[in-house]
Specification:
Layout (H helix, E strand, L loop, with lengths): L2 E9 L3 H12 L5 E5 L4 E7 L5 E7 L17 H9 L2 E9 L2 H7 L6 E7 L2 E7 L13 E5 L15 E9 L2 H10 L7 E4 L3 E8 L2 E5 L1
Parallel strand pairs: 1-4, 5-8, 9-10
Antiparallel strand pairs: 1-5, 2-3, 3-4, 6-7, 7-8, 9-11, 11-12
């Protein structure tokens, strides 16, 4: 089983606001991506190095109600309040070659496995039915792609690189134990503090921490 960071998500109240915020922080204009019909969301994306990508995501105001809770807590009132203040780090997603084993071994409920498709690519992703995030986003979602080149290879390279996923928690050993069980301990830095998620990036504007 191989696990690596697939992508990481920054949420925003609307994509225009998020793009402007990232232009100021990173010195790049994140291009439009696509729409997620099953979740009534849309995104902007760019490469982030090592076959991973950066996702800026928001509720799609032109899409109908999805008939279920949107992913990444986007329907949650507390998340919406936070995003009204500024874009925020929401979650990170790990690319795995054995999603079923990850789910079987997980110490927490990762949610249901939802099948998605865009064009000729399909993927399976863990999505809690209530739209929550495992450990409030400190534990990743997991994705398994259909065979083929990673989607990041078709995205623009704006010289933004993910340096590390940073997790803080009052009981870091508990989070570390969960990450170890999920076989992803090597993919994040864990330290003690108020529970939080952040992404350390190198960009045309220098080193930037997005939380």
């Amino acid at each position: 089983m191989q696990n690596k960071i697939d992508h990481f998500a920054i949420g925003c109240s609307d994509l225009e606001t998020g793009v402007a915020y990232l232009q100021d922080k990173l010195g790049v204009h994140v291009p439009k991506g696509g729409k997620h019909a099953a979740m009534s969301t849309h995104n902007c994306v760019m490469q982030a190095g090592n076959e991973s990508f950066f996702e800026l995501i928001a509720i799609d105001p032109d899409a109908p109600d999805p008939g279920r809770a949107r992913w990444f807590t986007l329907d949650d009132a507390a998340t919406q309040k936070r995003l009204s203040e500024r874009p925020r780090a929401l979650t990170w997603v790990v690319n795995t070659t054995d999603l079923d084993r990850i789910i079987a071994d997980s110490p927490v409920d990762l949610g249901e496995v939802v099948d998605f498709a865009r064009g000729d690519r399909t993927w399976r992703l863990t999505v809690p039915r209530d739209g929550s995030l495992p450990e409030n986003g400190l534990l990743p979602a997991f994705i398994e792609w259909s065979p083929g080149p990673h989607p990041s290879t078709g995205q623009q390279d704006l010289e933004v690189r993910l340096q590390s996923v940073k997790l803080t928690h009052p009981d870091p050993s508990r989070i570390e134990a969960m990450l170890t069980t999920l076989n992803v301990r090597h993919l994040a830095e864990v330290s003690q503090g108020e529970a939080g998620l952040a992404f350390a990036l190198n960009s045309p504007s220098g080193s930037v921490l997005l939380d």
